Amino acid sequence: MQQFRWRHLGAASALALATAISPAFAGPSDDTLRAAMSEEILNLDYNYTTKREYIILAQLTDATLFNIDPETQEVLPSIATSYEFFDETTLDVTLRDDVKFHDGSKLTPADVAYTYNWIKDERSESNAAGVVRRWLDTAEVTGENTLRFHLASVYPLVIRDMAARIMIRKDGTYDAGGEVDRDAMAQDLIATGPYKVASFEPGTELVLERNEDYFGEKPAIGTIVVRNIPDIGTQQAEMMSGGLDWMFKVPLDLAQSLGATPLATHLSGNDLRVGFLVLDSHGYTDPEGPLTNVKVRQAINHALNKPEMAEYLIGGSSEAIHTACHPAQFGCDTSVTDYPYDPEKARALLAEAGYEDGFTLPLWAYRDKAAAEAIAADLTAVGIDVDLRYVKLQSLNQARAAREIPAYFGTWGSGGTADTAAIARIHFDMESDRNMSGDQALADEILSAEQTVDQEERKEIYSSALGKIADEALWAPLFTYSANYLVSPELDFPLDPDGLPRLQNSSWK
């Protein structure tokens, strides 16, 4: 058995205010870290949510069976102390015997088995269901601190999925008395993590208190208050006056200008999120449209000045990419075909494809407007008449599901998972509307990488699949993202290489 060891103010204005304001950074004095989030926080149960904000909160309130070391990608214990594959589709897991829920009750294997079986259950409608259903048959209790997972098929990422997505709930949480209640933990969360909910006003404020019964290393800071502040200018004002200790998703110019003052520290770290264009190579929107021509798709790739977008629009650690994954992810082969920025080459390819006079391209986007406009400008410069449709994500999702989008600027963070599987399957599975290639053979090849536990074989499969995506220019990969934060000068907030903010690791200087 494998055992584990623990192991948008200008700089000048900001400087002027710095001398005018004597901020009372209350954080250390009352041991309270005050954080801001732009997105509304309405549901505390990560089993029923997806956004990055909810991942951050789940890291604070919840615990999973395993953890992944963000530095080494090594599997670490959490609620579980060890695991063993009895055979390729049978996994035995041993649990700690000292894990308590926030209400003081002891966690048992029955709670773990119930959680996994419920999420797989069709009645659950959980956001995590897709993750579990791809590999779980059933989970059963086998002893006082043990349980067995019966896998539906060989799946090499099962431990990683357990570490990243499934939050353990008490037996019967969602269907007590036979009545299904998917919102049972939405506001009154009972979990097992390092912080527990003291109070919650949905869309306004969440107050978390250190869980003194937490089984792991207890966090250094006693209280964390998370406020919903949609307006970045209001967040900025709060940071300058000492009302906030932590901001994220900070625009680069604001992060640099305010970070240059004594009022805040600018931190920039890696992020597994990547930006890209998805092109309707299959012809869902137009069976004979220009995007079905590989030379047109190659021209689009050559037309985009990705290095400048990365440097000037994203900044920090952002870099241009040319493969359909993040270079830090396992299996992300960066030796595939590249299309360097070359407008003349782009025009020549368009002419060869019969579009020397260009064509009209509806381009959809939902975030990072400056980047979307830069993409549109680069394509316009080589003769493509871009109709930029900047919409809400919900509108883009609906149009994409209806196969009404010929091209869109998308991003994907892989849930902080440093494995190509986290981006490849969802974008090239034939059942996903994100897949605009219509290539069954490619989808089968990508799926086959999840059906072998041989890591070298997985690398070879991803290399082949990514090579095909690049050769046929099914995407136009753009850049990696950089995470920009503003924090109180008195806060020590460590950055991890996977780009996931872990507020539970913060401390006062």
From TrEMBL:
GO cellular component: ATP-binding cassette (ABC) transporter complex; outer membrane-bounded periplasmic space
GO biological process, one term: peptide transport
Keywords: Signal
UniProt subcellular location: Periplasm
Cleaved signal peptide residues: 1-26
Membrane-spanning intervals of the chain: none
PROSITE patterns: SBP_BACTERIAL_5
One Pfam family this sequence matches: SBP_bac_5
Keyword Lipid metabolism: no
Primary localisation category: periplasm
Start and end residues of each Solute-binding protein family domain: 75-418
Molecular-function GO terms, alphabetical: peptide transmembrane transporter activity
Similarity comment text for this entry: Belongs to the bacterial solute-binding protein 5 family.
Protein name from the UniProt record: ABC transporter substrate-binding protein
Species the sequence originates in: Pseudooceanicola antarcticus
